[in-house]
Phosphoribosyl-ATP pyrophosphatase (Chitinimonas lacunae), 109 residues
Amino acid sequence: MISTDILRRLAETIEARKGADPASSYVAKLLDRGLDDILKKVGEEAVETVMAAKDGDRLHLVREVADLWFHTLVLLASQGLGPDDVLAELARREGISGIDEKNSRGAGQ
Ligand SMILES: N=c1c2ncn([C@@H]3O[C@H](COP(=O)(O)OP(=O)(O)OP(=O)(O)O)[C@@H](O)[C@H]3O)c2ncn1[C@@H]1O[C@H](COP(=O)(O)O)[C@@H](O)[C@H]1O
């Protein structure tokens, strides 16, 4: 089974691209272009993910989600964050599942 190690390894590769020659690496090029271009790619990949799901093409969907995850890892790195921050948030929610929903329902009332 493939573990979350792949996310960490990929995040390390992305981190190592900071300051690298943009001509030598896609990640370095994207980081060099800046936040707006990274956000544009995340938006594009999110839309392509939705379209693949609507088409019912499961392989295409997996590939688009991989593109989306990859570009969100670049976004996180650009903000000084990484997959462990998101995994920790998901783990935190595991412990409060159901509670948040009740709280948020109550919050506006
Ligand atoms: N996982 C990926 C990955 N997924 C997608 N892409 C690239 O993301 C780009 C955008 O994909 P699109 O399908 O949107 O293609 P496009 O519309 O032609 O792209 P644009 O030029 O418009 O941005 C393509 O150039 C893909 O090659 C990736 N590029 C790199 N990685 C990983 O990042 C590592 C470091 O990559 P480099 O920085 O290039 O060494 C690699 O070893 C891989 O593990």
DSSP finds six helices and no strands in the chain.
